[in-house]
């Protein structure tokens, strides 16, 4: 890239050197993008590793047999929790999706809240193992901690089931809108009315294009695909205008009231014709 840009700076009018520099810039951009993706994957892997360690420490706390053992294991659990909270907080700041960011914050809050109750619930169970309420309370707190850990994992990987459902719903709605629009543009030129059909068709198309624009602006959409989506949207918009113009060109030149008036005038003229020509009156029933 440095060599290509230097050569182009020396001869900026050369189309060959300009093309070489552009290709070098694209290659550099692609390499930087891959590097950023790898760095992001490394951060996610680091967070998942900490989650695994916290899960193992949580199991150790759950399997404690006495209060002294519980205190020692919970101390180790607390140390791992501090590390996890630091890594999860950094990941939360880096998330671009607002929904994933909110989910991460909620999971971190739930984990912090239930982790403080974990020691008390476990201690009460060890003191009164025969009481069903203490066992149920401990199991409930453990379940809440496990769900919070799973929430952090889902948010970090953007693999929340609700997100997946919402994504498919959006794509399905766009596909359904395209199918509906495809059916709406099939019109009879004899009954076409510009004032009636043009506004509704243009409004439907702009709504579809807005949905496609959201997909194009997504951070997951590649640059080449984004450009293609924009180009296709413009092409479809122009195609609709061409189709409406074609419908207008094939409309009947005269309205039905005008045709009825001309029919009546023709009938009157036939009645006024001389007798030799009155044989044309046989066509009156067809007018």
TrEMBL record:
It is a peripheral membrane protein. GO terms for molecular function: actin filament binding; beta-catenin binding; cadherin binding; structural molecule activity. It comes from the Eukaryota. One of its GO terms (biological process) is cell migration. One of its GO terms (cellular component) is nucleus. Gene3D superfamilies: 6.10.250.2510, Alpha-catenin/vinculin-like, HR1 repeat. It is found in: Cell junction, Adherens junction; Cell membrane; Cell projection, Axon; Cytoplasm, Cytoskeleton. Its main location: other. SUPFAM superfamilies: alpha-catenin/vinculin-like. Keywords: Cell adhesion, Cell junction, Cell membrane, Cell projection, Cytoplasm, Cytoskeleton, Developmental protein, Differentiation, Membrane, Nucleus. Coiled coil: none annotated. Belongs to the vinculin/alpha-catenin family. This is Catenin alpha-2. It comes from Leptobrachium leishanense.
